[in-house]
Each structure stands twice: as structure tokens, then as C-alpha cells.
Amino acid sequence: MDKQHIKGELKDTEGDIKEAVGKATDNEKLEAEGKADQAEGKARKVGGDLKDAAKHATQ
């Protein structure tokens, strides 16, 4: 697992927490931020997967 995957996982987890707190406090803005963070985290993880695939393809 490289830095890209770790950063993605952290951002995804941060988004989960924000979304949960937003739902619990009825804060739609925080909930939306959480969903956006989750999407960013998932995108980073996909970027890491592509990077890994390219690295393995060239070896």
C-alpha cells in the first residue's frame, strides 16, 4: 500500500465521520462535506491502484 492509498483511506474515513456527525446533528452542510470527502478518498485510492498497475506493468 503506497502513500496514495493511505491518503485516500484517511480522507474516506474522515468523510464517514463528517457525514455521521452531520446526520446526527442535522447539519446538511457537514453531511455534504463528508460525502465529498468520501468521494475524494475513493478517487485517491483509484489513483493509487492505477499507479500500482502501471508500476507492475513496467516491471
What characteristics describe this protein?
2 helices; single chain; 59 residues; mainly alpha
Brief account:
Helix content is 88%, strand content 0%.
Task: List the helices and strands in order.
Answer: HH
Runs in which pLDDT lies below 50 for 5 or more consecutive residues are none
Rg value: 14 Å
Mean of pLDDT: 94
Q: Write down the domain tally.
A: 1
Number of H- or I-type helical stretches: 2
* Helix proportion: over 70%
Q: What is the number of strand segments?
A: 0
Task: Give your account of this protein's structure.
The chain is rod-shaped and about 50 Å long. It has one domain (3-53). It has 59 residues and is an all-alpha fold. It has helices spanning 3-24, 28-57. 88% of the residues lie in helices and 0% in strands.
Topology (elements, then pairings):
Blueprint: H1 3-24, H2 28-57
Helix pairs in contact: 1-2
